[in-house]
């Protein structure tokens, strides 16, 4: 997709976060307190990124996951902006900024916390059985 096509597809907030590496305000995104089961996909390209099975409440105000659905679906990039060292998480398929990964996640799940902006995600909910 060209940059112009991406601008037409995404909201201005999504574009700011996903293409300009911005951040949404904590506790403001639609998925930070979501508990439905399903698959979280990239809002830009539809790549599967995170399963609800790895989502946990980190208390940070952003959706947090212990693992991506497949490590090959995300790219981890050193980020030394804002006077600190962090690791940026990008969608490997389209290059969109998603958030950052930290080493303060649940120890019983590998210790990682993928802190992801809600605007970068689309949740495909599992169908409920009747």
UniProtKB/TrEMBL annotation:
MF GO annotations: peptide-methionine (R)-S-oxide reductase activity; zinc ion binding
Keywords in alphabetical order: Metal-binding, Oxidoreductase, Zinc
One Gene Ontology biological process: response to oxidative stress
GO CC entries: cytoplasm
Domain MsrB: 3-126
Tagged with keyword Lipid metabolism: no
Residues that coordinate or bind Zn(2+): 42, 45, 91, 94
Cofactor(s), names only, from the UniProt record: Zn(2+)
Catalytic activity: L-methionyl-[protein] + [thioredoxin]-disulfide + H2O = L-methionyl-(R)-S-oxide-[protein] + [thioredoxin]-dithiol
Cross-referenced SUPFAM superfamilies: Mss4-like
Record flagged with keyword Repeat: no
EC assignment: 1.8.4.12
Cofactor binding: number and manner: Binds 1 zinc ion per subunit. The zinc ion is important for the structural integrity of the protein.
PROSITE patterns linked: MSRB
InterPro entries found in the cross-reference section: Met_Sox_Rdtase_MsrB (IPR028427), Met_Sox_Rdtase_MsrB_dom (IPR002579), Mss4-like_sf (IPR011057)
Active site: 115
One Pfam assignment: SelR
Family membership: Belongs to the MsrB Met sulfoxide reductase family.
Protein name: Peptide methionine sulfoxide reductase MsrB
Organism: Candidatus Yanofskybacteria bacterium RIFCSPHIGHO2_01_FULL_44_17
Annotated gene: msrB
């Amino acid at each position: 997709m060209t940059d112009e096509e991406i601008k037409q597809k995404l909201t201005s907030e999504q574009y700011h976060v996903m293409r300009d590496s911005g951040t949404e305000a904590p506790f403001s995104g639609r998925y930070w307190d979501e508990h439905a089961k399903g698959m979280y996909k990239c809002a830009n390209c539809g790549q599967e990124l995170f399963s609800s099975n790895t989502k946990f409440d980190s208390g940070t105000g952003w959706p947090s996951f212990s693992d991506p659905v497949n490590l090959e679906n995300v790219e981890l990039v050193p980020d030394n902006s804002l006077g600190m060292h962090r690791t940026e998480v990008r969608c490997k398929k389209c290059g969109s900024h998603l958030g950052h990964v930290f080493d303060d996640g649940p120890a019983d799940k590998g210790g990682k916390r993928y802190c992801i902006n809600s605007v970068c995600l689309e949740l495909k909910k599992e169908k409920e059985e009747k």
